[in-house]
């Protein structure tokens, strides 16, 4: 019995599946007389005042195929196109539509909240507000445009009136009507069966149920089309909050609906039976594309300009342009960089795959999550990917080599804001930002090249302020990118894109094309390529090879994280602007051409895949060398950060091409230690540099590097941060004679000997050394900072923080105190050894502390009492001080008579008190005011003097830093503090 049931179930399932894919012919096949891939929701309610004739006209101009609108009946039986039952949201007047006659209906507000998108608003630029239109007016103005009509209320008179108007204007074949209410839809169907009717909500549920149980191929469908929601839209926070779908559709029902409505088999079955399927409401690229991927006939959208079938004249260059199209699929493109859906990758393999026809490209993606394997397919390795899932195979037609520099220049600097917003996504649509903390609505301005942007508050912000309302007034922001003389221009084409390129680009001094898919310049004729065919682009006003005519002021060019893959193509760009001063090509996989000296060796390796990925082996070596040697005559700054193919050998060649180079950044490249053998030209090029950045290049020793650049007379800044340097060799006075900035952060120094070596750098005034182990081994970071300051007397800035005279004085005094005991021990010599060992110990001490004797000359040699270790306990940290109150007129006599042996002054003017060494000067001032009963208006100054230095002139130290602690001054018991009024 169970076997029979199983057999029946299998046969039933298989038959149902076959009939779903191939509907049987006896079922009714519907055919519409029009196609509507793009349906504007209420005329584009996300961008225009909804359901107005102006909105419908605007949506028709941008290519919409069908209007969607709603109908209500007024008190005098006029059919008006209006969505809400009440007038509040759109007009600001309370009441129902049916309560007003048509003439008494209020006008639309100039600012209307976009339904389903809280916090977003539509604003009219018209001087007068729009009037609510009648359905008859819509039919009159657009007699041949298909229209979808949603009957909003169950009113027989309204249904009859709408049907009468449709019949009067002979629109039965291009009008779809109905309602989500099954009762209203039934009345519409009975009223005129020649008018197309869309399925109500309950009928959609019934059809979905038939699909789930496999009966859909056998069920006749009585309605003419389906308007289905995307469940992802229904479940979105904004939609759910406005429509409260969660109350009617529990999560389980939503999941089931999503399963059915997201099934291409379900949608395509309906399409094959002749029933159009439209998805609503698709307001972004993902939803629109998903609708078509599922097989829908079209989608309903509030954004009329967001159409995947209607493209903007300005192409989205982030997807690649015509010059990046792969026309020849051969080994010449191995090593090239490509872009697919704004993701970058490297071509590592070109050829066929088993059981397939045509060529494939093996791509190693920068984003590992885009790949599927490591270059191995069906047990065969075709290439070696960087990661286990960074490789995949794609068809050549699916990817692009990128875009030209010229097209990127026009797109970024010459295209107006309006067109830029239209092309920011692959839909070329002017979409609103989503997921942002603010809602920005953008409208075109009457002045060419400008936009009006309106900033509103979100629902969360409104709730925070307690209003629970959306603002009626908005902030107007004017945006522009092209600062041309607008009153001299007569059209949008004069202001935007190709026509404005020359005037815009010639003013540019700095150009940044970071993260754009630029891979070369347009081809043009030159002395190096006299027979090359000129290349043109619709975005560029001239042919290739004419950058000098458009970039006459350019000094800095940044092309970091682009698709550059050949030094020869960079040279072709720079040779057109020989006055270029700065070039940044960081984060690019740039291959060097084969050196003419190594051409025979490389020819042997032509068959090696690794050679093709590392070198530009197909370019003419002699011609490439000549081109590169003439391309950078005035370049003074080069940035090569994170270039995976960079090594010391390639750096040596690149430097020889740039005779004027002064600043070089090679940070974050796995270079390691430089080689020993360098040609004279390369050494001369290195020693001409004024700035050299070698941050994080895995440098472990500096001997070879210092031998290469140490003799430089010009080097001012050297950065060696984030390496693995553990020591610094002896530096004589002839090395780095002009070096004033040195970066040694996050290296492996474990003692202070490296700082002693820096004493020989006489002009060093800025040092960066934080993050080294020697800092971690210190008592704290502040103590380590003081150590460095004291050891380098010429230093003016440490770790980008200026060293003040007070900080230097305190650091040097602490240094004397910290090592004073060791110095005294060396001076006395070891008590258990001979006295002749004393000088030897002192000599060793001075090797470790070469500045100690200089500091002794400056501040005096330390004494035994000054070198006692500091006890951190409160009791042990108490100091007994003598406070003496002085008036300015008695300062001279009091100083002489205030010794410990005599004190002729009043007892109230002399007080001895114990205070903690952690007390700040500010708290000390408050305590002094209480001790001597000084009024708040009395001004006084504090000075400290050691009791042992009473007979020495000018030994008083002012206590004028309120935040400093008493312990900073190394006071002892019975020292004096003078309170001078």
UniProtKB/TrEMBL annotation:
<keyword id="KW-0963">Cytoplasm</keyword>
<dbReference type="InterPro" id="IPR052271">
    <property type="entry name" value="GDPD-Related"/>
</dbReference>
<keyword id="KW-1133">Transmembrane helix</keyword>
<keyword id="KW-0378">Hydrolase</keyword>
<feature type="domain" description="CAP-Gly">
    <location>
        <begin position="351"/>
        <end position="395"/>
    </location>
</feature>
<keyword id="KW-0812">Transmembrane</keyword>
<dbReference type="GO" id="GO:0008081">
    <property type="term" value="F:phosphoric diester hydrolase activity"/>
</dbReference>
<keyword id="KW-0433">Leucine-rich repeat</keyword>
<feature type="transmembrane region" description="Helical">
    <location>
        <begin position="6"/>
        <end position="24"/>
    </location>
</feature>
<dbReference type="InterPro" id="IPR000938">
    <property type="entry name" value="CAP-Gly_domain"/>
</dbReference>
<dbReference type="InterPro" id="IPR029071">
    <property type="entry name" value="Ubiquitin-like_domsf"/>
</dbReference>
<dbReference type="InterPro" id="IPR001611">
    <property type="entry name" value="Leu-rich_rpt"/>
</dbReference>
<keyword id="KW-0143">Chaperone</keyword>
<dbReference type="InterPro" id="IPR030395">
    <property type="entry name" value="GP_PDE_dom"/>
</dbReference>
<protein>
    <recommendedName>
        <fullName>Tubulin-specific chaperone E</fullName>
    </recommendedName>
</protein>
<dbReference type="GO" id="GO:0005789">
    <property type="term" value="C:endoplasmic reticulum membrane"/>
</dbReference>
<feature type="region of interest" description="Disordered">
    <location>
        <begin position="893"/>
        <end position="914"/>
    </location>
</feature>
<dbReference type="InterPro" id="IPR036859">
    <property type="entry name" value="CAP-Gly_dom_sf"/>
</dbReference>
<dbReference type="GO" id="GO:0004622">
    <property type="term" value="F:phosphatidylcholine lysophospholipase activity"/>
</dbReference>
<keyword id="KW-0677">Repeat</keyword>
<feature type="domain" description="GP-PDE">
    <location>
        <begin position="36"/>
        <end position="312"/>
    </location>
</feature>
<comment type="similarity">
    <text>Belongs to the glycerophosphoryl diester phosphodiesterase family.</text>
</comment>
<dbReference type="InterPro" id="IPR044079">
    <property type="entry name" value="Ubl_TBCE"/>
</dbReference>
<keyword id="KW-0472">Membrane</keyword>
<dbReference type="InterPro" id="IPR032675">
    <property type="entry name" value="LRR_dom_sf"/>
</dbReference>
<keyword id="KW-0443">Lipid metabolism</keyword>
<comment type="similarity">
    <text>Belongs to the TBCE family.</text>
</comment>
<dbReference type="Pfam" id="PF01302">
    <property type="entry name" value="CAP_GLY"/>
</dbReference>
<feature type="transmembrane region" description="Helical">
    <location>
        <begin position="195"/>
        <end position="219"/>
    </location>
</feature>
<dbReference type="InterPro" id="IPR017946">
    <property type="entry name" value="PLC-like_Pdiesterase_TIM-brl"/>
</dbReference>
<dbReference type="Pfam" id="PF03009">
    <property type="entry name" value="GDPD"/>
</dbReference>
<dbReference type="GO" id="GO:0046475">
    <property type="term" value="P:glycerophospholipid catabolic process"/>
</dbReference>
């Amino acid at each position: 019995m169970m076997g029979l049931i199983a057999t029946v179930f299998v046969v039933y399932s298989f038959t149902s599946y076959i009939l779903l894919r191939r509907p049987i012919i006896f079922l009714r096949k519907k055919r519409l007389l029009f196609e509507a891939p793009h349906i504007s929701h209420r005329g584009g309610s996300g961008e225009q005042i909804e359901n107005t004739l102006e909105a419908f006209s605007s949506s028709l101009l941008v290519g919409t195929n069908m209007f969607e609108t709603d109908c209500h009946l007024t008190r005098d039986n006029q059919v008006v196109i209006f969505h809400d039952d009440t007038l509040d949201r759109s007009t600001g007047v309370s009441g129902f539509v049916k309560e007003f006659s048509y003439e008494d209906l209020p006008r639309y507000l100039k600012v209307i909240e976009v339904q389903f998108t809280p916090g977003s608003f539509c604003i009219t630029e018209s001087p007068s507000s729009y009037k609510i239109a009648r359905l008859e007016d819509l039919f009159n103005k657009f007699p041949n445009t298909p229209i979808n009509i949603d009957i909003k209320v169950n009113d027989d008179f309204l249904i009859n009136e709408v049907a009468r108007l449709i019949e009067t204007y002979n629109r039965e074949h291009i009008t779809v009507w109905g309602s989500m209410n099954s009762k209203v839809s039934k009345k519409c169907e009975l009223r005129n069966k020649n008018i197309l009717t869309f399925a109500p909500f309950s009928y959609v549920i019934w059809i979905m149920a038939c699909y789930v149980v496999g009966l859909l191929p056998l069920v006749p469908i009585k309605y003419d089309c389906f308007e289905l929601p995307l469940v992802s839209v229904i479940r979105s926070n904004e939609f759910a909050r406005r429509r409260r779908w969660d109350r009617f559709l529990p999560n389980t029902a939503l999941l089931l609906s999503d399963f059915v409505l997201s099934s291409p088999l379900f949608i395509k079955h309906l399409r094959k039976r002749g029933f159009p399927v439209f998805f609503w409401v698709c307001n972004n690229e993902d939803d629109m594309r998903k609708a078509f991927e599922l097989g829908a006939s079209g989608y309903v959208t509030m954004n009329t300009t967001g159409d995947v079938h209607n493209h903007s004249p300005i192409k989205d260059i982030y997807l690649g342009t015509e010059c990046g199209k792969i026309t020849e699929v051969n080994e010449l493109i191995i090593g090239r960089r490509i872009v697919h859906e704004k993701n970058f990758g490297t071509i590592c393999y070109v050829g066929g795959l088993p059981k397939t026809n045509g060529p494939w490209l093996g791509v190693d993606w920068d984003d590992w999550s885009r790949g599927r394997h490591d270059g191995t397919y069906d047990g065969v390795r075709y290439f070696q990917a960087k990661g286990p899932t960074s490789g995949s195979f794609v068809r050549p037609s699916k990817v692009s080599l990128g875009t030209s520099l010229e097209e990127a220049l026009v797109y970024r600097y010459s295209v107006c804001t309006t067109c830029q917003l239209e092309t920011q996504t692959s839909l070329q649509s002017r979409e609103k930002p989503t997921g942002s903390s603010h809602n920005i609505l953008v409208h075109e301005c009457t002045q060419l090249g400008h936009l009006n942007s309106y900033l509103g508050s979100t629902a969360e912000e409104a709730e925070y302020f307690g209003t629970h309302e959306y603002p009626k007034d908005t902030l107007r922001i004017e945006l522009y990118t092209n600062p041309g003389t607008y009153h001299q221009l007569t059209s949008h084409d004069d202001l935007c894109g190709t026509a404005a390129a020359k005037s815009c680009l010639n003013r540019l001094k700095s150009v940044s094309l970071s993260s754009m898919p630029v891979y070369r310049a347009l081809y043009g004729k030159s002395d190096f390529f006299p027979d090359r065919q000129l290349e043109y682009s619709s975005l560029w006003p001239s042919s290739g090879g004419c950058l000098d005519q458009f970039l006459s002021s350019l000094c800095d060019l940044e092309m970091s994280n682009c698709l550059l893959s050949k030094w020869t193509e960079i040279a072709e760009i720079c040779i057109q602007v020989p006055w270029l001063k700065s070039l940044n090509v960081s984060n690019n996989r740039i291959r060097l051409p084969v050196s003419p000296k190594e051409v025979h060796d490389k020819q042997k390796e032509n068959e090696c895949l690794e050679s093709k990925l590392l070198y530009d082996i197909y370019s003419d070596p002699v011609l490439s060398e000549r081109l590169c040697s003439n391309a950078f005559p005035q370049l003074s700054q080069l940035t090569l950060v994170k270039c995976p193919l960079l090594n010391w050998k390639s750096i040596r060649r690149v430097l020889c091409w740039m005779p004027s180079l002064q600043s070089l950044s090679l940070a974050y490249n796995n270079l390691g230690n430089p080689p020993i053998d360098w040609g004279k030209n390369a050494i001369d090029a290195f020693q001409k540099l004024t700035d050299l950045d070698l941050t994080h290049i895995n440098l472990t020793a500096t001997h070879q590097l210092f031998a290469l650049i140490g003799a430089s007379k010009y080097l001012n800044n050297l950065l060696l941060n984030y390496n693995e340097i553990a020591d610094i060799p002896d530096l004589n006075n002839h090395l780095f004679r002009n070096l004033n900035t040195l970066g040694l952060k996050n290296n492996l120094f474990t003692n202070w000997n490296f700082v002693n070596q820096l004493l020989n750098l006489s002009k060093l005034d800025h040092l960066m050394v934080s993050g080294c182990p020697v800092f971690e081994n210190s008592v704290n970071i502040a103590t380590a900072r003081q150590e460095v300051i004291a050891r380098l007397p010429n230093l003016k800035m440490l770790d980008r923080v200026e060293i003040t005279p007070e900080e230097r004085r305190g650091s040097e005094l602490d240094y004397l105190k910290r090592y004073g005991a060791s110095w005294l021990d060396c001076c006395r010599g070891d008590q258990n050894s001979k006295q002749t060992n004393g000088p030897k110990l002192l000599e060793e001490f001075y090797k470790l502390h070469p500045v100690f004797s200089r500091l002794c000359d400056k501040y005096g040699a330390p004494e035994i009492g000054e070198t006692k270790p500091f006890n951190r306990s409160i009791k042990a940290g108490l100091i007994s001080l003598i406070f003496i109150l002085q008036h300015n007129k008695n300062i001279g006599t009091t100083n002489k008579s205030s010794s410990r042996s005599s004190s002729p002054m009043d007892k109230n003017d002399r007080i001895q008190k114990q205070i903690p060494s952690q007390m700040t000067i500010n708290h000390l001032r408050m305590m002094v005011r209480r001790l001597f009963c000084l009024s708040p208006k009395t001004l006084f100054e504090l000075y400290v003097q050691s009791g042992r230095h009473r007979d020495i002139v000018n030994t008083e130290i002012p206590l004028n830093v309120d935040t400093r602690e008493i312990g900073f001054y190394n006071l002892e018991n019975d020292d004096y503090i003078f309170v001078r009024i």
